[in-house]
Amino acid sequence: MPALIVALDVPGLREAAGLVECLRPVTCWFKIGPVLFVREGPAVVRMVHDAGGHVFLDLKLHDIPQSAAGGVVAAAELGAALVTVHCAGGETMLRAAAAAARPAAGRMAVLGVTRLTSEAGRVAGSVLRAARLAQDAGLDGVTAAVAECARIKAACGQAFRVLTPAIRPAGGPAHDQARVATPAAAVRAGSDYLVVGRPITAATDPVAAARAVAAEMEAAGGASGPVTGSQMPVRR
Ligand code: C5P
Question: Is residue 235 part of a domain?
Fold first, then answer.
């Protein structure tokens, strides 16, 4: 059953807490990215935890192996359930990140960013190579566009997690995303986690927008119950 993750791409703790409070009945997964984390730090992670939510800490770490591994250890100490490292960091960095997450196995999964969903053009080949590299290095899964999801699952197996951002309700604006897809298409492609930001957070009524996404996911066959609480990290 895929999980709906709402991206808290808002300027500060106060706005993020307001969103978490009103969206908690719809989902328990929230994404914290660099803007919010640099500004507010661990307090914003604690806020989500205090609300009973799970944190996807999307820092897309890309550094020398020791620094990337240190970031993964710190994310585990904060209680993040998902953390990202960039596949472009290469095999040694990815192996270091996977090793650093081992003590947190079952509590936190590490996903490799293949290619950003804002990148246009022919990226399918490099996405698949990045996914294979991430799997060989011991990561739990990758982030990719919906268009690449089925191919990654076919190549790496169903247990290898695929998180798909750039989700847009049919007819909605793409903003700065290039490779977008609807919630239903993401579910049908086998995505494990759907990340949705502006279509929910910039909506006049974020709760109604989130409920509409959740309903589309359920209708597409992705969820037999509420889209909350699914997809806790499992390490193979
Ligand atoms: O507002 P929108 O729905 O486009 O937000 C998508 C979120 O997913 C953003 O927070 C962005 O940082 C994140 N993301 C992405 N592409 C990736 C990985 C994460 O857009 N490959």
Answer: no
